[in-house]
Fold Peptidase C51 domain-containing protein.
Amino acid sequence: MTEHRSTPTPIIPRLARIALGASIALTAGVMGPAALADGHGALTTPPADTKTAEVSSDSGSARTPLEVVAQRLPKVTAAQVLNLAAQQIGVRENSMGGGTKFHQWYMSSPRAQETAARDGGNIYGYANAPWCAMFVSWVGEMAGIRPTMGWDAYTVTHAKWFAENGHWGTTPTPGAVVYFDWEGGKSIDGIDHVGFVKHDNGDGTITTIEGNTGNGNVEQLVRPMSEVVGFGYPVYAG
């Protein structure tokens, strides 16, 4: 299993480029919204009516500032999101490169229909597709902050969503969504992979939590900043 560079294909809607992420918390194999620990042992439940369409769309319609959208969402900290991501460490893909709960969630979501239509394929193409962005988007969904985390089947488009919403930069902060180019490029169009920043190590490296790693798992890793294209910044409380 190798980490994926996304490369467009004319027939299966850029599915080779897709580094997917959004998923649903499956407990005992059942789909449903996950409860999120608030750091004091209390649980909160993501609202069922959070929507991304008001924030951005592929049509380029007017965007509501993410800070405004966040006012009606649960108050979720970066530490809570990283804890949720860390709880997924060890989740592994099958021999086909798919089959995770992240794939299942994305395929069941309305976003899969939108991106498949956009890219010229169908939702079944996502079953064994690269899933790093599915993982990131799943965490946002389960934390109840998808409208400020974004969701997409393609890492480049997901990064552009952050940039278009004014939440893109070059500073590694805990909970930021980090985008990589294995060749060291700094163009969003060259992005290969995505994960979360756990912390800046202060030595030119960052500690991350990522899905769809070279081992086909969710893992905690140390990455050089030289491979980072940039960071997307969800809206966190605190």
User: Anything to note?
Assistant: The chain has seven helices and ten strands.
